[in-house]
Amino acid sequence: SEMCIRDRRKTFDILAQYESELDHVNTLFETQSEAPPLSTSSSRGRSDPELAALVSGGVMGGVAFGVSASFGLFLKPITDAENLKRQVIGLAVGLNMLVQGFSSIGWGALTDAYGAAPVMACGAALEVASLVATSYSEDGWQFYLAVPVEGLATGALSFSVVLGAVGKLVAPERRSRSLGMASSTIAIGNVVVPPITYALLASRSWSAAMRLVAGGCVVMFPLCLCFAASARTLRRGRADYAAAAKAGDEVANPLRPAPARSLGETVRTAAATRSYRLVFAGFFVCGFHVFFVRT
What we know:
81% of the residues lie in helices and 0% in strands. By secondary structure, the protein is mainly alpha-helical. Helix 4 (86-114) packs antiparallel against helix 5 (116-135). The radius of gyration is 27 Å and the shape is elongated. The chain has helices at residues 2-34, 48-69, 75-82, 86-114, 116-135, 140-156, 159-169, 175-203, 206-217, 220-247, 263-271, 274-294. It contains twelve helices and no strands.
């Protein structure tokens, strides 16, 4: 009958509409599957560029913090050889720690503006230059000028710079683990570098030992190049993925950059965040016990 014909036509129209929507969904999934992944590995494994960035950044930070932790070993050899009071070297190392803390803020801002690799390269150059300059120092004012520069270098390779850079490069599902691994790598420097420094001091003068330590810090330059190359590879993959996701119309793009914030807005947001206040308090206690007592 005429009613049955209308019902059949309506049914066919509904099926055609569903088929059209299904084709559209399949097209979107095909577009998303053709997009380059966030990293060059599977979602479960860690990519080679990610691992290279993590290791190179962590080792650079570990070397810088390890050298900073070794300054206490030079106290007696310097005071004996240069006929200086302990207060002179202690004040120089104290200035080093203050410069390290305050410079981290500026280095972080430069990292946001120019990237982590140039900042790390500056830190490596300042590290070597400060150690060489310190090794030729003979009076208090020379130590006051040379030793704090090492704090400036360590600030450029501090936790805030290295962890911030690594966190931006790794895939979100591996970010927490990667930051933990990078932190551990940096902390290992405090255990590895001082014994090496002690062995050098046991067999030669303090100035020769410090120049050898400066020579060892040269390893940071190839590590910096490795980090820069890995970062370029990962950023290129992220850009390709974002472009492909954008071309997919309705495909969600997890890499959409966050809106830019001013420094004041960032500070106010951090101060209002309970987790940040707890982390700040924890780092303050750590810094007071470790750096103040060591100085």
